[in-house]
């Protein structure tokens, strides 16, 4: 226990600005939901649909970029700043390539959104919004790589402030473009997409310029950006990134397809789902930030040859995550209606959203546990079996059960959420057990 307590403080020190940065990123979505919700239930439902389709591509890209944090942390643990810079350079090349590729795929998909069977009033307004947020994905990936590099090098605070500034800028631009202030036309949902694109692009530019001028990372800053790439490094990154992308993709697509199925039930269930998933995702940012810090610290311990520290780092982070998510669960249970009323004034949407938040309270704890366990497994480069675990949990358990209870059964959107909660619980138990088994020999 003393070893576990010793590792909690440095994990929290690294995690605190990461958590604030993650919450700031999520607050951009919350701000959009609140401001779009005030424009009407249909725009809110359309933002839910478009955002969830975009989220699949977004999370797949996040998985592909995650090796930057793991490998830079390991190189830093081995005292190899030149290797840190090479992983940054190769990571940015991957970010640009996959960002452009995903933008083109989403542009083609925008012509086929009617195939998802959403309400006609939602389909009538969603395409411009979807295309604008699709155009922002390259900036998101570039920012993510640069942020992970900074955090892995032990400098997480400036990225946090950049994210906070991005939230403020996004809200200000929403006020201008959604409602038509300062002489701009009132673009409604499309205005929210334009605000997102502008704020994300500026954020990527600002963090690059800061790192370029920061003396603290000068030894690891690449001397050249293009040419002389190493296929071995790209293979190493993809060896981690592809399964990690699969893990995140299986979970995100499960949520996205559950959203699509909820959309079959009508605009009110879809709007309620958007409110509840926004709140649950905001709470999830706390264990997500902890997981990033824990994964980087586990990886750095591996690079330094200190294998005995892996379990104290990981289980200390899990204990913190369980505590935080327990508090979130109590907030969702006790204040569901008040929270939902903050987003929208439609009484039917408020009642249903409060019911969904009650289910979110039940799975919040296991959701936090599974994301920390998955990150710690990535820290020891165990990614293939965890990817298989998440596939089973979300696609063979969560979605079929949610469909049976919510679409075929009588529980509606609540049934879909019960199915997702069951998948999260299975993933949490399996991933935590696997990490404990793989690290037992050096405990």
The number of helical elements comes to 14
Total beta strands: 0
Structural class: mainly alpha
Oligomer: single chain
The geometry reads as globular
Number of folding domains? 1
Rounded radius of gyration (Å): 21 Å
The helix/strand series, from N terminus to C terminus, equals HHHHHHHHHHHHHH
Whole-number average pLDDT? Answer: 87
Instruction: Please give the largest β-sheet.
Output: none
Helix content: over 70%
Strand content: under 5%
Unreliable stretches covering 5 or more consecutive residues: none
The termini sit apart by: 12 Å
Q: In terms of topology, how is this protein built?
A:
Elements: H1 2-37, H2 41-65, H3 67-77, H4 81-109, H5 120-135, H6 137-152, H7 157-177, H8 189-213, H9 231-263, H10 267-303, H11 310-343, H12 347-379, H13 384-407, H14 412-438
Helix pairs in contact: 1-2, 1-7, 1-10, 1-11, 2-4, 2-5, 2-6, 2-9, 2-10, 3-4, 3-6, 3-10, 4-5, 4-6, 5-8, 6-8, 7-8, 9-10, 9-13, 9-14, 10-11, 10-12, 11-12, 12-14, 13-14
Overall description:
The protein is mainly α. It has one domain. It contains 14 helices and no strands. Helix 3 packs antiparallel against helix 4 and helix 4 packs antiparallel against helix 5. The protein is globular, with a radius of gyration of 21 Å. The mean pLDDT is 87.
Characteristic key phrases:
83% helix; 443 residues; 14 helices; mainly alpha
In short:
The protein is mainly alpha-helical. The protein has helices at residues 2-37, 41-65, 67-77, 81-109, 120-135, 137-152, 157-177, 189-213, 231-263, 267-303, 310-343, 347-379, 384-407, 412-438. It has one domain.
């Amino acid at each position: 226990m003393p070893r576990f307590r010793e590792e909690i403080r440095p994990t929290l020190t690294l995690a605190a600005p990461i958590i604030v940065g993650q919450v700031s990123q999520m607050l951009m979505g919350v701000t959009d939901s609140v401001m779009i919700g005030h424009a009407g239930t249909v725009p809110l439902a359309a933002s839910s649909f478009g955002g969830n389709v975009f989220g699949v591509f977004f999370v797949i890209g996040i998985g592909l970029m995650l090796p930057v944090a793991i490998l830079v942390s390991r190189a830093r643990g081995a005292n190899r700043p030149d290797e840190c810079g090479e992983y940054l350079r190769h990571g940015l090349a991957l970010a640009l390539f996959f960002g452009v590729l995903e933008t083109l795929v989403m542009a083609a998909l925008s012509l086929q959104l009617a195939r998802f069977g959403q309400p006609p009033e939602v389909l009538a307004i969603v395409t411009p919004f979807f295309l604008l947020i699709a155009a922002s994905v390259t900036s998101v990936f570039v920012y993510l790589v640069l942020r992970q590099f900074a955090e892995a090098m032990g400098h997480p605070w400036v990225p946090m402030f950049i994210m906070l500034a991005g939230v403020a800028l996004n809200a200000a631009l929403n006020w201008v473009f959604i409602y038509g202030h300062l002489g701009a036309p009132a673009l409604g949902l499309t205005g929210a997409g334009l605000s997102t694109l502008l704020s994300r692009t500026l954020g990527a530019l600002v963090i690059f310029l800061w790192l370029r001028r920061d003396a603290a990372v000068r030894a690891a800053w690449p001397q050249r950006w293009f040419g002389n790439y190493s296929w071995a490094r790209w293979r190493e990154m993809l060896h981690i990134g592809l399964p990690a992308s699969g893990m995140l993709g299986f979970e995100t697509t499960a949520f996205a397809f559950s959203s699509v199925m909820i959309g079959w039930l009508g605009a009110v269930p879809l709007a309620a789902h958007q409110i509840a998933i926004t709140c649950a995702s905001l709470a999830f940012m706390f264990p997500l930030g902890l997981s990033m810090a824990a994964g980087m610290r586990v990886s750095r311990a591996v690079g330094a040859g200190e294998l005995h520290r892996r379990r104290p780092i990981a289980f200390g982070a899990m204990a913190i995550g369980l505590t935080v998510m327990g508090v979130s669960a109590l907030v969702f249970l006790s204040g569901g209606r008040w929270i939902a009323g903050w987003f929208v004034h439609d009484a039917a949407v408020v009642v249903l959203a409060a019911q969904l938040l009650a289910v979110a309270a039940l799975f919040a704890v296991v959701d936090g546990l599974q994301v920390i366990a998955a990150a710690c497994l990535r820290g020891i480069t165990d990614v293939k079996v965890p990817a298989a675990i998440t596939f089973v949990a979300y696609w063979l358990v969560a979605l079929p059960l949610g469909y049976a209870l919510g679409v075929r059964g009588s529980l509606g959107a609540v049934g879909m959420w019960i199915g997702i909660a069951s998948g999260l619980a299975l993933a949490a138990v399996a991933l935590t057990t696997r990490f404990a088994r793989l690290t037992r020999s050096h405990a």
